[in-house]
Amino acid sequence: MIHQQAPLNFDYQATTPCDPEVLEAMAPYWKDFWGNASSRQNTAGLYASAALSVTREKLASILKVKPERLIFTSGATEANNLALLGHARAKAIEFGKPGHLITVSTEHNSVLDPLRQLTREGFSLTELQPDSEGILSAEKLIQSFQNDTFLVSIMMANNEIGVLQPLAELSSLCRQKGVIFHTDAAQAFGQIDFDIDEIGIDLLTLSGHKIYGPKGIGALIIRENIPIHPLQWGGGQEQCLRPGTVPIPLAIGMGKAAELALETLNTRQKYLSSLRNKLWTDLKSEIPDLILNGSMEYRLPNNLNFTVPGVRGSQLQHSLRSNLICSSASACSNGAPSHVLRGIGRTLKESEASLRLSLGKETTISQVKSAINIIVKVVKDLKKDRLSL
Ligand SMILES: Cc1ncc(COP(=O)(O)O)c(C=O)c1O
User: Fold this and answer.
1) What are the b/e assignments for 1-35, b being 16+ CB within 10 Å?
2) The pTM is what?
3) What is residue 329's predicted lDDT score, i.e. its pLDDT?
């Protein structure tokens, strides 16, 4: 018998609630210290500017980069757009013509869509297929370089199937060719440990709300001397790359969230991967025909994604809805079938009958056990109904 008051949240990759310590760090900057960081001729502005510098330095030191390399944006979507459109347009002016770009078909839409926009501006684009586990091989990348390739964008961790790409290997190929390497780390930051310079990342995208920070803030980290054209023009903030008044409370919140995420990363990684492994092992033993989506070895600790063969996706979602919050694709896909699952070879039906379960720091073993019971019951009932038709 399933007794559930509120549905269980297994959708922490879509977003996370603000950590109470993040709310506390942000609080004074809404009302008491509300100055504009660009108005340095008054005390309130000076205070805001100092607070912004402190949070920028904090984030930069967590990422082991110089503070000047960090540009605050409204989130990962804007950071991806700024990196890709901004660098491509700058290079087209430098070369006198557009060139060739490479990405992977399983990227987030905020990477795919700006790159596809660039094809309408004369650039050419190769969208590589990963293997059936979601991983892009170095060989595939090598084969896709052209004489005029200047930018490659490959995400660190996939938002749907949690797969981690072999970034150091891929970026070193780019470095050898003199090609700029961008990665969207919106899902990886705070979940896995990485060093931007050791991996060889030229442009890196971050988001605040995936790490218990506020929504509406993110950042782009830019290696020195990489030309980027702004997407908008105005007051010259953020080195003229992101003009507009910087939302100080959100930037402070993102800095605090990053600090908390990194402090607890190792213990959280172990905790979440053990819960995730239990989720998968128990579900698979109860429903043996489940198909795992994405590599289990190279995967975020908080992600599980599987296909339930023999059931209709819409019925599966509908039957789970009142007890379990989870996702069948990314939060930004507007309900369209997952291009990520299609990209690793699932059929349309299989993609629709797939679930992404993502865990957060609040997830408990008893919630995991309840989620297993809920899913097993729903899947068994749906399969029974189909047999009796
Ligand atoms: C991999 C990835 N990139 C980009 C985004 C967009 O992030 P934001 O909501 O900060 O714009 C998301 C959010 O779902 C994501 O998972």
Assistant:
1) eeeeeeebbbbbbbebebbeebeebbeebeeebeb
2) 0.96
3) 58
